[in-house]
Amino acid sequence: MNFLLETLQVVVMSVYYNIEAFVKLFIPLKKKNVTGEIVLITGAGSGIGRLMAEKFAPLGVSLILWDINQKGLKETAKLVKEKGAQRIHYYICDCSDKAEVYRVADQVKREAGDVSILINNAGIVTGRKFMEAPDSLIEKTMEVNTMAHFWTYKAFLPAMTANNHGHLVSIASSAGLIGVNGLADYCASKFAAIGFAESVALELLATGKDGVKTTIVCPYFINTGMFDGCSSKWPRLIPMLDPDYVAKKIIEAILTDQVYLLLPKSMYFVMGLKNIIPFKLGVLLGMYTGAFNCMDAFKGRIKED
């Protein structure tokens, strides 16, 4: 009997959430007030991390900026101050180093307070085919793009759950939803980041911590320099993305507690196709929607964002 009731509940809730999602397409969502929140952005020294910091600057938040690049951090701090940020702290932190993440996190708590919006944005791409990638680069990719999320969550989530208030943001990738030729380690790291973020979100709901929101961002490739030289096979359907547009949509998603954000919108259609077509066609889809034209551009260089 319990099985039948639970099955019915799943069906009813599925219908409800689909109707809710459809209605939200036509009704503007109310944005929450983030004044006074403490926002930590990893990889804030350049790219999307810097742009998100600039867009948070006038919203009355305290900004905590992390990056491995000291020069980039100082430039971001200067820019966000010009944009109106009043409270700025920046720290050099190698997010691939667990001990360093914990050490800098403790420093943040002492100097700025408990982080209430955590944005895991730091990422790297090696740009080598799987069999050509040295083990050390594969390990580095997993450490930065995946394991760093484990350590930042461990450091800052306890305060959020204690207050039943906060927001966890994972800047993943469309390459974490569909395999891409020539980016095996990168795809694996992003698939893992999405799975981790989804699982923690479910844990929070199961334990009644519904005040801690989650947002998982899966953009196509962005013109930040990380994927210089790459081109889309279908530029009209799935174009390379403008960084400022992506940063704007991410901030909107956070302010409206949007759980998933896929960019461009055509990626929702692509993912729907992946889930219904046979495996071999799905592989072909992955080849033609992915960074199929990137390998010569990378030439084995590590790209960071």
Structure commentary:
- There is one protein chain.
- With 305 residues, the chain is of the alpha/beta class.
- 50% of the residues lie in helices and 14% in strands.
- It has helices spanning 2-24, 47-56, 70-82, 98-111, 135-163, 184-206, 243-255, 266-276, 279-289, 295-298, and strands at 38-42, 62-67, 87-92, 117-120, 124-125, 166-171, 212-219, 260-263, 303-304.
- α5 (135-163) packs parallel to α6 (184-206) and α8 runs antiparallel to α9.
- The longest helix has 29 residues, at 135-163.
- The chain starts with a helix and ends with a strand.
Overview in brief:
The protein has helices at 2-24, 47-56, 70-82, 98-111, 135-163, 184-206, 243-255, 266-276, 279-289, 295-298; strands at residues 38-42, 62-67, 87-92, 117-120, 124-125, 166-171, 212-219, 260-263, 303-304. The chain has 305 residues and is an alpha/beta fold. The strands form two sheets. The chain has a seven-stranded parallel beta sheet with strand order 3-2-1-4-6-7-8, sandwiched between helices. The chain has a two-stranded antiparallel sheet with strand order 5-9.
List keywords for this structure.
single chain, 305 residues, alpha/beta, two-stranded antiparallel ribbon, 10 helices, 9 strands, oxidoreductase activity, acting on the CH-OH group of donors, NAD or NADP as acceptor, SDR_fam, oxidoreductase, Short chain dehydrogenase/reductase family 16C, member 5a, Sc_DH/Rdtase_CS
